[in-house]
Amino acid sequence: MRKFTAGLRHLYGANPLHLLTLLAGFALAGYVVSVLGLSQLWDSKVWWHSILVWFIGAIVLHDLVLFPLYAVADRSLVAGWRAITGRLPDKAPRVSPINYIRIPVLATGLLFVMFFPGIIEQGKRTYHGSTGLTQGPFLDRWLLIAAALFGLSAIAYTVRSLLVGHEQNGDRQSS
Amino acid sequence: MLGFFLLISLPLVILTGLLDYIAYGPQFHQAIPGQVGFLHLPFFNWPTRPAWLFQFTEGLHVILGLVLVPVVLAKLWSVMPKLFSWPPIRSVANLLERLSLIMIVGGIVFEIVTGLLNIQYDYIFGFNFYTAHYFGAWVFIVGFVVHVILKLPTMAQSLRSRSLRAELRTPLDKTRPESPDPDGLVASSPSSPTISRRGALALVGGGSLMVAVLSVGQSLGGVARSAALLLPRGRSYGNGPNDFQINRTAVSAKIDPAATGPKWQLTLAGGPAPLQLTRSMLLAMDQHSADLPIACVEGWATTQNWSGVRLRDLAKLAGVAVPNSAYVTSLEPKGVFSQAHLQSNQVLDPDSMLALRVNGADLSLDHGYPARIIVPALPGVHCTKWVRSIGFEA
Question: Exposed e or buried b for every residue in B153-190, given b needs 16+ CB within 10 A?
Fold first, then answer.
């Protein structure tokens, strides 16, 4: 018996429970799709109105669009900063601005990704029919939130730079 | 760490979502989607108490779902190197496990995307939201359970590997890279860190906190509502008695204003003979008044002072003192929510009423004039507006 499981482990790559768990999972997922009805997954009139397209599209959108975009943006920010400080080490600010840029960009970006329908006024008619209002204020509100976030970050960066500068001057005087 | 947090919080989102299916009354075939096989919680009669029950369950579902978006994104970011690992498949086990990730990753992102679009009335996806969100949730649940079973040891190990308290005391200049792990998730030659581990946790937590502050107001209502700056239900309608959140205007429900005028009559059916009541006859009956929240499946709520005739008084008048259920229809010509069944407890609750007035004034047309149903803890869309008839079923 032990020999058998060892053999299976070698052939399969993990213990038998791993295999059983996954097979049970796939069978259950199959049941979910079967209750929904396979035909429900696909809209033959408008292909991109299909549940299947949106389900797989969700993975593609996150893994192959959103992630590469923010990863490249972040890499460029860090690499750019390092290139500048590498070339002009004397003139480089004492406090790295990376996180003071990164955080408000991430925050405003997150808010846009989550609440863009209101900001770009998508779904206008349904919105008006449901609420009796328009989506007019959302773009301005998002811009004001962005202004506040970048402003706060600028203040925080200034305070931090002054504190560090003060500390370093103090160190120099005492030595 | 992120995984542990999601392990605790995601089941709450799942459970409240499934509870809301029950709140819609699947025993009357009015929960959407209609056919779900075994994929539901055991059916039970949705209670009317506490009156804020639906406001709580649905508010928790939507707001917690929103708050978890930064955590989910951070979790996906942290495991992203696995997606591009080389060779892409190491064994059959590895292949199957990667395939199973389609359920959990596709499931969570699909649920977030459809949920976010729905609460903002953006139906660009074209398919039925309820059906897609419900079955998408079950695919996610399967993937989630499988993932937890397979990865629980890994999570326990990584939680044990570091002390949270020590990490919270480690600044950037003392932050060292992770030692290599058997799963190959740790970078083999990491660049020098730009943020400490506590900083990264604070970033995710801060993101969640920001989303919470910007959304919880639409569920709590009152003064907090104005903080929900970017959500449809953070808006103010003014200060008048009828100036509160409207769901579906009379125009979009295609209500004929003439049908709501003096000619309007309420039909009470189910007894020996149907009764017709005018609005003044209803106003001449015993008026009951109560502060009750009306809460929507989109996770927003608003509490108002409603007054009108108790449903149980109407049932008695119709000749069915203890009905098993009631069937309410609206003047709305068509649409899923132009009718609703109420359970016995929802008819007999002392605060359940056919509301005629709100905050001391007549209901406005957009809020259901001449009369609307108000039942504690009942989903808002089943608090039928522009009521045409009520049939009490013994």
Answer: eeeeebeeeeeeeeeeeeeeeebeeeeeeeeebeeeee
Q: Kindly report, residue by residue over B212-260, the tens digit of the pLDDT.
A: 999 999 999 989 999 999 999 999 999 999 999 999 999 999 999 999 9
Q: Which chain A residues in 95-134 lie under 8 Å from chain B, judged by CB atoms?
A: 96, 98-99, 102-103, 106-107, 110-111, 114-115, 117-119, 122-123, 126-133
* Euclidean distance between CA atoms B264 and B277, whole angstroms: 9
Express each pLDDT in B288-338 by its tens digit.
Answer: 999 999 999 999 999 999 999 999 999 999 999 999 999 999 999 988 899
CB-closest option in A25, A63, A145 to B146: A25
Its pTM stands at 0.95
How high is the pLDDT of residue B125?
Answer: 96
Residues 6+ apart with CB under 8 A from B117: A117, A123, B123, B124, B125, B129
Which chain B residues in 230-259 lie under 8 Å from chain A, judged by CB atoms? 230-233, 235, 237, 245-249, 251-252
User: Are B145 and A11 inside 8 Å of each other by CB?
Assistant: no
Measured in degrees and rounded to the nearest 5, phi and psi for residue B8 equal: -80, -45
